TrEMBL record:
InterPro entries tied to this protein: UPF0047_YjbQ-like (IPR001602), YjbQ-like_sf (IPR035917)
Lineage top rank: taxon: Eukaryota
Segment forming the signal sequence: none
Pfam family, one: YjbQ
Native source organism of the sequence: Corchorus olitorius
PANTHER family linked to this entry: SECONDARY THIAMINE-PHOSPHATE SYNTHASE ENZYME (PTHR30615:SF16), UNCHARACTERIZED PROTEIN YJBQ-RELATED (PTHR30615)
SUPFAM superfamilies: YjbQ-like
Protein's recorded name: Secondary thiamine-phosphate synthase enzyme
């Protein structure tokens, strides 16, 4: 049996000395008498979810996503959920899941920092004056999230939720691809 170890660098130690940690798994060296632990094969699951059109602003969509992935998610003990939005004029983020004022204030902030309208300096306005500002806002927050999976659940904090931020005035359905990987 061969034990693996990893090197972790900790900024708390002076001079960046590596800290050795024993791995929680082992692999067999091919010896049939070996008592190596069996490492489960990784599992994969993927689902594309279409969220309904939502008005401009930040919307909590955790429950809609969980409703669609719960059967697959429950099969994972440990892993990662990758959530990817297939659009360039909306975005995803993880933030406050209780007080809707946080979502409203975030929308207010985005509108103040990224100017819109005919006086804005943008060249790209093929789909209207909110087109380029939507692309910029989407790039600011991003289109993907990675969330740990623990015991069949998304391992987010108590006050965290998944937001879809719609940056366009005309609501449109949004596709989200959720990929689960783990054991």
């Amino acid at each position: 049996m061969m034990m693996h170890s990893s090197v972790i660098f900790s900024s708390a130690k002076p001079s960046w000395a590596p800290l050795r940690v024993k791995a929680v798994y082992s692999t067999s060296t091919g010896d049939s008498n070996s008592m190596a632990a069996t490492v489960p094969a990784p599992k994969w699951a993927q689902k594309t979810i279409t969220l309904p059109p939502l008005r401009r602003g930040c919307h909590l969509v955790t429950s809609e996503i969980l409703k669609e992935i719960r059967p697959d998610l429950s099969e994972f003990k440990c892993g990662l959920a990758h959530v990817f939005l297939q659009h360039t004029s909306a975005s995803l983020t993880i933030n406050e899941n209780y007080d809707s004022d946080v979502r409203d204030d975030t929308e207010t902030f985005l509108n103040k920092i990224v100017p819109e309208g005919r006086s804005a300096p943008w060249k790209h306005t093929l789909e209207g004056p909110d087109d380029m500002p939507a692309h910029i806002k989407s790039s600011m927050f991003g289109c993907a999230l990675t969330i740990p999976i623990s015991d069949g659940r998304l391992n987010m904090g108590t006050w965290q939720g998944i937001w879809l931020c719609e940056h366009r005035d005309a609501p449109t359905p949004r596709r989200v691809v959720v990929t689960l990987n783990g054991i």
